[in-house]
Amino acid sequence: MIRLIKDYDHTRNSRHQAQLRSDIQNIENTLNEHEYNLKRHESTKAAHTSEQIDHDGFTVGNRLKNLSARFANLVTNHDGSDVKEVVDARVTTEGEIAQTLKDRLDLEFNSLAQKIKRTVYVDDFGAVPDGKTDSTEAFKKALGNGRVRIELSAGTYIVKGIKLPSWTYLIGKGKGITTIKLHEDTPASEWVITNADYEQGNRNIFVQGMSLDWNPNRQGGVRATGGQHSSCLTFANVKYGWVKDVEAINPGLHGFDITAPTYDHLPTTDYTKTGSRYIWLDNCVAYGYGDDGITTHYSEYIFISNSHCVYPSGKAHKQGESNSNGIEIDDGSKHAWILNCYTEGNVRGVEVKAHAKWPAAQNVHVIGHVSYRDVRSYDIRHIGHHLASDPESMTAYGVILTDCTAIEPVFNSLYKDLSPRALVISAYKNVVVNGFTAIGDPSYDYKNYPAIALQYRSRNISLNGIQVRGFKKAEADIRLFGGNQRTDNVNISNFTLYKSAKSGIVIGGKVYNVNINNGIMTGDKGAYGITSPNSQANIVGVYAEGYDYAAMIKGQKYKYVPNNLKGGTRVATTSGYATSETGFIAASSGDPVASGEASSVIGSTGGCKAQGTRNVVLGSSDRSTATKDGSRSVIGSSNNVRIEGDGVSRTILSSQAVINNKSYTVALGYGTGSPSASNKKVELNAKAGNVLGTGRIESVSDLKDLAEYFESKDGSKIESGYLVTLDGDKIRKAEKGEKVLGVISETAGVIMGGAAFYWNDRYLRNEFGGIIYEEIDVESEDKDGNVVIQKELVPKENPHYDPDIEYIPREERDEWHVVGLVGQVYVRIDDTVQAGDSIVPSGGIGTKSEDGTGFYVMRIKQPYSHQKGYGVALVFMYPQL
Fold first, then answer.
1. Which fold has domain 118-316?
2. 704-747+817-881 belongs to which homologous superfamily?
3. What is the full DSSP assignment across 253-275?
4. pLDDT for the residue 508
5. Do 348 and 323 contact (CB within 8 A), yes or no?
6. If you ran DSSP here, which 8-state letter would residue 501 be given?
7. Residues involved in catalysis
8. Can 704-747+817-881 and 758-806 be said to share one CATH topology?
9. How is the chain split into domains, by residue range?
10. End-to-end alpha-carbon separation of the chain, Å?
11. Where is the Rhamnogalacturonase A/B/Epimerase-like pectate lyase domain (predicted)?
């Protein structure tokens, strides 16, 4: 066996490579045929005739004829009656003796008749496998009306096309051993083999063990003529067909075409009525085809297994526009299985598609396929239904790829403008890809195109068990194209991306329904693991490393891939309902309900409900409810409470049997029986800043005095413990004989006049100090998310207020002091003071009162220190002014 190198350096022009491979293949075939014929000649029992062998000056044939004549002469002339000749004629070729010569003749005829009914040999009808003789008529005679098994010899039969009737077996000795080749005068429209009756159809046709050579070099070079003509083998309107161990060589159009008689069935018709059904192609090979290696049209229940389609010529198309595919499931096909096949050097390895006018292929299964260096390894599309302005495809459904591999897709001059990709899905819905492996060449320039592309209005796609590596110069491993022609409704799960494209998964604009789960992404100086212009993708359990950022979602960059969930959600709960898309229930029981947009029930029991928009029930029980008419409300740590009415921003905390229906308030309370607003005990009013309560206010710390802020007279700081007096509306240290306002305190339990949030004169006030209010229009959202305008009374701002000027609170400014007015305070004292004395000021320091007036000293906290110049006493203060 001679084997020549057929695959050259892959950086060569792809058409050049295909031509070289075809030429070398032809040389190899010829050399192997010569080798085979020589070995057959050496081993055959009838390599030469007896006339070709010399023996003592005579041929062996001559000597045998001489001996035969002499023997016959002895038999027929021994007694003149010829009786012994008749006796000799009764002996059959099997050595048996018939009763009479007629019996022997009848027996031999019957044996021959039976043999012809079971199997015939085309050579017996005049076919000669010499590569020269036109054997067309011999095949016609052998085939007859069908119901025949025809055996072919080794060698090459020249025909002008073979038409197979029903119930026919055509059996050769194997690929490359038996070849059927088209005659020089055969029209370009002919097939090597097809079925006989396109109109009525045929059934039960079996073709096995041969090569079919379309011979495109005849007549100086011919090409496909259009339609379904010009292929090596075509079944049109055939039921029950088998094609096994057959090779298709250089067909004008297709290597193998399983089809209807025409290619123009509209989707509104019964478009598989005249198509082929129940066809199995196994162990077939095609190369040099003008269009596709194996294709199907308007046919169903097709099985293609263990077959190879490599290196098309593309001559059925214009140069540079050759959509020549390895295996194509085309217009109107249904229920097709491609199992364990291989494609190489094609424009598309496996294509599932349809043209714009015709129905798309449906329910197609591709299992265990390998695509090597095809431009697009797997392409699923319905042409003419891609753009937003195109009509939606009503037939493009149901493609399943299982355990398929794409190896090094590359550019190819057959279709010069087509970018290489491992997988492309366009216009189809309900596509499942399981166990898909894409292996790129890290050094190959993919010109920033993605390895896997979901695009052009494709929908309902599941990619599971995807492995991608080696696409170093690609834009993305998986890209979901957005815009008006966007893909959507995509699941990507259990995937591994390893040292491949610049970005792992790229989601385009307006793509809102994507689930990305359980993935490992290992970049190699990549940019982003996942990118999305919005935050709508559900992302759970994805790990990324080796990228500048693991993710960029809605412009936010992450060093890790965040878990991101949308939609109504129930977590760790045995019952209940999240009836809105953004409702959330977690760790709750007793039929909780989250029925408003962005509402949630968390850690609650006993039928709690968050019904309004953006309402939350947290850690509560016993039917605690934020009703549907309001929004932005919270119930926390409460039992049997309700937020009612159509207001906003209402809260109930740590309460029982309380109703809150006032906007911008926090309510706390306790009661028994049914919920009631009268059970409120505390109300915090965010709008007015008021605190209302029915009980006492009590400090439980060691803070002991009531204080108020005062500004110092000279604007400087007065240290703690000094007694101060008023000088106008400001303070200074108190001297002897002056009335004491209070003491600079650090122990005040209640402090007034702080102005901690904004400038004290931010709002205008009336002559009695009350805030002046005005009515304004305020925008808000109702429970349905609609913007509404409401009239509200708000404090009127001082025209001199400038919100751009940073405000410093009084507690951070030296001129403002907390002055303890009433209660127990710490006061600086001199060395005259003892416990039980009364004190009066002297330079702001307490000194013993001579007449018993002043403030009572409860105890000495620190004795007088000459070094410090003061001691510290706990003094009870009370108003003097």
1. Pectate Lyase C-like (2.160.20)
2. Head decoration protein D (2.40.300.10)
3. S-SEEEE-S-S---TTS-TTTTS
4. 97
5. yes
6. S
7. 708
8. no
9. 118-316, 569-693, 704-747+817-881, 758-806
10. 124
11. 122-321
**Closest C-alpha to 119, from 155, 168, 177:** 168
- Are 406 and 450 in contact by the 8 Å Cβ rule? The answer is no
**Following CA atoms 146, 191, 248, 320 in sequence, which dihedral angle do they give, to the nearest 10 degrees?**
-160
Say if residues 740 and 853 touch (Cβ distance below 8 Å): no
Q: Quote the DSSP letter at residue 450.
A: -
Write out the two tokens for 803: 């919100």
The class that CATH gives domain 569-693 is: mainly beta
pLDDT at 68: 65
What pairing do the DSSP bridges indicate for beta strands 773-781 and 787-795? antiparallel
For residues 307 and 282, is the Cβ–Cβ distance under 8 A?
Answer: yes
Q: What is the pLDDT of residues 228-284, one digit of tens each?
A: 999 999 999 999 999 999 999 999 999 999 999 999 899 999 999 999 999 999 999
β pairing state of 476-480 and 405-407: unpaired
**Interval 727-776: pLDDT, tens:** 999 999 999 999 999 999 999 888 888 877 777 788 888 888 888 888 88
d(CA 121, CA 171): 10
Tell me the per-residue pLDDT of 219-237, one tens digit each, with 9 for 90 and over. 999 999 988 999 999 999 9
- Give the separation between CA 870 and CA 847, rounded to whole angstroms: 10
| 8 Å CB contact between 122 and 134 | no
Beta bridge partners, 164, equal: 195
Neighbours of 837 (CB within 10 A): 20
Q: 758-806 sits in which CATH class?
A: few secondary structures
β-strands 148-151, 748-752 pairing: unpaired
CA distance 826 to 790: 52
Q: Over the stretch 145-192, which tens digit does the pLDDT of each residue have?
A: 999 999 999 999 999 999 999 999 999 999 999 999 999 999 999 999
